[in-house]
Specification:
single chain; 72% helix; mainly alpha
Amino acid sequence: MFLASVVRFAAFERINAPKSGAFHQNHRGDHVDTFKQGADALFILLGAIMVLAMHSGFAFLELGTVRQKNQVNALVKILVDFSVSTVVYFFVGYSVAYGVSFMGPATSLAEKSGYELVKFFFLLTFAAAIPAIISGGIAERAKFMPQLIATAVIVGLFYPLFEGMIWNQKFGLQAWIKTFAGAEVHDFAGSIVVHALGGWIALPAVLLLGARYGRYRKDGRVSAHPPSSIPFLALGAWILTVGWFGFNVMSAQTLDKISGLVAVNSLMAMVGGTLAAALLGRNDPGFVHNGPLAGLVAVCAGSDIMHPAGALATGAIAGLVFVQFFTWTQNKWKIDDVLGVWPLHGLCGAWGGIACGIFGSTAFGGLGGVTFGAQLLGTLCGIIWALLGGGIVYGLLRITLGLRLSQEDEFQGADLAVHRISATPERETTW
């Protein structure tokens, strides 16, 4: 319907266009400019809505993975984290990253184009993905309020500072990398800026919290904490997968820059990650449904410049990375990262940043304009920044407020300990 409207408008303009006259030409130009602004605003608004929907995917992925006594907590955390993220990004974070403030009177906001306001909405959904990523790693034993404080600091300060460096040329980082490595860091849709940053911030939080009680026994055995619902886990993964096409394709931010290459590359990376995870994970449904997410995380950076075959390889390698490192993290290194957010977002995001420098080059069929050195250097900068931010924020919270539920509350479950209701209260009523 939208494209049909565009075609009808264009035909109307051709038929009714005046033959001459500066006034009529200027009037027609103003009309076209107004229409373009409206079309771009609608385009990026649809992207914002799709990425907003992805947050329900984060919620259901976590709900299905944790034990039943922590399902309510998973749902509440994602929604409240998003709300806190909105407030701090509106008042502080967006200004830090882009130098745009919405603190003027309402009359000045009304005069701003619809596009400028919905662009904030779109980029907010990216920023709010950071605490949603972290939430999965610290699930089942983290206190509620300290995590909200961490969300405010990360989304209000640490994330937008790095976002501004990569996507808005702030603080000279891109210029320095270009001088040193021959090109700027290319991160079209956030493999480094969003996913690697979120995953590597989560790692210090997971380590500082420690493992869930009973997860690793003194005799060296690993106690299984199986998912509570494979269907909900799968639902979350599917919602994220579908929404990701808004995450990637709408990162063009204007209608005239939309690229079918981004859509097809996202698709190829998704299936590559799925097949690799299914093969190496021996058809385990947890691996199968996280496989497409691994592929999509990795392809974000170079989805606009890779050849589809390169995107397929990028996704497949990401699927292998996730399965192997999730297994090592949980069983060999005994790091209790509940949803595997460090391997899924941290490592696959880092791989995606580097892969952009490989498969985005003309030697591998890409469009070029990138170098391996710049991508490697930019990825390392993101990792260092994330570890620094995560260590500072969660380290200070551990010293001051504490990060972890008491042993009694953890045993009881966060649903009852924090929210005073379980996921199935009616079933548990006794007469």
